[in-house]
Write a structure and sequence with these properties.
It comes from Crystallibacter crystallopoietes. The protein is an alpha+beta fold. The protein has helices at residues 23-33, 75-80, 146-149, 164-176, 189-207, 213-228, 237-243, 248-256, 262-278, 288-294, 300-311, 315-327, and strands spanning 6-9, 16-20, 38-40, 49-56, 59-66, 69-73, 86-94, 97-101, 104-108, 113-117, 122-126, 130-138. It has twelve helices and twelve strands.
Length: 328
């Protein structure tokens, strides 16, 4: 990025604000701050764009203001750049935009929300002077299989209906207080955001008619049951099936339709909870073994191996990294 891009970081706030002067600078900003994306605009020379960014853990928030432009996540860029599996949730703060993915398109106006999946191609078309809030987080943080969330990509969530009526003002206020991420209580904020967005998605899925609506609704009920009982060590397919008056075979079939098994889903959700607690300074006095046991991992060595395989670092390394950030 050349010298005409001006970075303005508020002292101690943890919010990075960057202003670009050309379309190339804007494209570089997105590539370096978000992920590789193709950017086009009729404003090929003068392009005054602005991004405010903050994040904590694996959740990132961006507020982008720019002239008319188009952003694409192309198959080539997806293949070339391994940035992980993320969802993005966009909220229009000002102006108008269009989100396109999975043969659907959603026109968003002020207060409207849409979700899209960065592992598949998508396009964003923003009007002149559009101001957009974006929350980006790993797919596994939401307790829904990607196949179910895929029913809602590039779908407009009306700011005046359903849970979107609560999520929209929450995200709007969040963008006005991005410095909260850097404060002591900010460790819980990323998970609160994702939990709220996940609840909105579940609500929308309950309202969306599908050919397998009964099976989909039952699957969501079972996933909710699993989420509420992750701390129970004896949470197994047999007990889950019995609690829902279905056979273990039918239970497995419901999950396999979405590309997962019951056991792998339970393990993933437990690991996510463990990761959340290990990254939370309020749990610093709890031992790694105690935190693991709280979420059903009763064998420390097995937990450590499983955790490192999933997150690439050991549980203790996660905790040390949090301590170092707090000390800094």
């Amino acid at each position: 990025m050349n010298n005409s891009a001006v970075a303005m970081a508020g002292p101690g706030l943890g919010v990075q604000t960057t202003v670009t002067r050309t379309i190339d600078e804007f494209a570089d900003l997105l590539r370096n701050s978000v992920m590789p994306l193709a950017v086009k605009s009729r404003h090929s020379s003068a392009f005054v764009g602005r991004m405010r960014a903050a994040g904590r853990g694996r959740v990132f928030c961006y507020e982008v203001t720019a002239p008319e432009h188009t952003i694409e996540r192309t198959p080539e860029l997806i293949k070339e750049s391994a940035v992980g599996e993320y969802y993005k949730v966009s909220l229009m703060l000002q102006g108008e935009s269009m989100v396109m993915q999975d043969s659907r398109e959603a026109v968003l106006r002020q207060g409207d929300i849409a979700i899209y999946d960065t592992t598949r191609p998508y396009s964003l078309l923003s009007s002149e002077g559009a101001r957009t809030a974006i929350v980006m987080f790993p797919r596994e943080m939401i307790a829904l299989p990607p196949e179910l969330v895929g029913q809602l990509t590039a779908v407009r969530f009306d700011r005046s209906q359903g849970l979107a009526a609560s999520v929209s003002p929450f995200m709007t206020q969040l963008m006005m207080q991005l410095d909260q991420f850097a404060r002591p209580g900010g460790s819980r904020l990323p998970h609160n955001i994702v939990d709220l967005l996940g609840t909105m998605l579940v609500s929308e899925l309950d309202l969306a008619p599908t050919e397998t609506s009964h099976g989909s609704q039952l699957l969501r009920q079972i996933m909710s049951y699993i989420e509420d009982n992750l701390s129970v060590p004896d949470l197994r397919p047999g007990t889950i099936a019995a609690a829902h008056f279905i056979s273990p075979r039918y239970l497995q079939m419901l999950f396999q339709r979405n590309g997962v098994t019951v056991s792998s889903w339970i393990r993933e959700r437990r690991l996510e909870r463990c990761h959340r607690d290990l990254a939370d300074p309020s749990h610093a006095s709890d031992s790694v073994t105690a935190l693991a046991a709280r979420w059903g991992f009763l064998e420390p060595a097995h937990f450590s191996r499983t955790y490192k395989k999933r997150f690439g670092v050991s549980p203790r390394e996660t905790r040390v990294a949090v301590s170092e950030r707090m000390a800094a």
